[in-house]
Amino acid sequence: MVLAGVDQVIAGVHLAGSAAPERFAWKVAARSLSDVAAMAACPAGMVVAAALSPDIETEWANRFASELQRIGSMFECPLIGGDIAVLPAVGDSMVFSSTVLATPDPEAGHRLVLRSEARPGDLVCVSGEFGASLDSDGGGHHQEFMPRIDVARSLHRSLGNCLTSMIDVSDGLSSELSHLSRESKVRIVIEGERIPRRHDSKLEQALCDGEDYELCFTVSATAELPACIAEVPLTVIGRVEHGEGVFLDSSGDQAPLEASGWEHQTRPAARDSSDSEGGFR
Amino acid sequence: MVLAGVDQVIAGVHLAGSAAPERFAWKVAARSLSDVAAMAACPAGMVVAAALSPDIETEWANRFASELQRIGSMFECPLIGGDIAVLPAVGDSMVFSSTVLATPDPEAGHRLVLRSEARPGDLVCVSGEFGASLDSDGGGHHQEFMPRIDVARSLHRSLGNCLTSMIDVSDGLSSELSHLSRESKVRIVIEGERIPRRHDSKLEQALCDGEDYELCFTVSATAELPACIAEVPLTVIGRVEHGEGVFLDSSGDQAPLEASGWEHQTRPAARDSSDSEGGFR
User: Fold this and answer.
1) CA quadruple B158, B161, B162, B168: dihedral, nearest 10
2) ipTM of this model?
3) Where in chain A is the domain with CATH 3.90.650.10?
């Protein structure tokens, strides 16, 4: 079985148009690798397309390609194909897409971790910290994040079936919790003060900013969750119950949590909701 | 073994920005499927990314996605993932990319037909007709072509190893012949008057216009080439010799043929030259 997922990076939306070629390469590859991490799968190869501005020089394109090759080596996910095209006008926004192919992890019985298997009684957990991923100068975590491939596989190999569901946090923690709740048909209750926050971000930022690219996952209550894996902290932030919806618990008062993550991508019917879980035999 | 190749379609370069969503879907999928045909491989699944203008309506995106699903069924190449994003400004050129995954043909011994195996003594052949793929109103063959998946597999299954090399003609026949010559390290001699021409196109158009998406292939001199497959005519247009370069033979006079196909895509080092032949195990 081979899985395939695609993600895009658009200049002016996901990165400043003036960002270095290495930033574009990192972000377009790392976004797709984060999708692979969410399934605890093993990346196998990457195909990248770039539509560049006509004033981009060959050196820029070469640096972009070199960085993709470096990232490919780093994640055992070689660049196996690519296409570079030139946009009609200098003002056009550059567009990059990466498709990462992946396979289920043989050391975890070829099982994939889906979004749809959270069960009442499970604990809701996250890796890392949330909020303030975008610095005021345009830099910050959103362009430097590390796809959690190793953390996800290590968790899966040690917990097995007790790792019940997982998703990566690109649009915002509240938005991804809503996906987990809907696809697993469960109620999720989060304790706001337990969410680890980046820098001095507020709770709302941690819930809604997005671009954290951390893992949000559920484990059986009996699972022994390590405090951290490869120096990445793991934190219990809530629980799974019977019912539906996502709720924020503050000292016993529960309020519905809206899925108000930072959705800069539209999601009409054309977006295949199985994009992170698509595959063929 | 899974093969993966990516191609892009840019509004204003490959299709008019005002073209119907079905045209964009057809062209982006068919370009990648043509790459699969060139290897006589079997398509297995398709992943598509689209960066749409902010003024595109949901109905447009839905029609685009429906057409991709129809094409997927038609070529046994299901749409297994996708991503739709919105460009920052209405004036930005829309960008589409499709990655087609494919496997070697089990009914041809899992062999792939490459560009590098043409041998002196072989005959050079083409499917279909060449030139004038773009009508004056922007329509024409370039947006309606049929990827030659079935023709390629049928040829391969009947000729086996006697089908020595193959490429699809996207940039122009002269340009693709130059690729075959260089990658196979052989000299190619073409008889201009043998090239089948679309409508009333001139020889130069047939050689250089591009966007024909026909097959150009070499067969052993002993191979029995059918006159046509599934109503697509097959024509011998030249021969392979020892040496290098591509030459046009007119009544015994040979002149070098420049690779002056219609290259609207740049090809800096970032373009992986193995893009149609990339794969991983």
Assistant:
1) 80
2) 0.86
3) 123-256
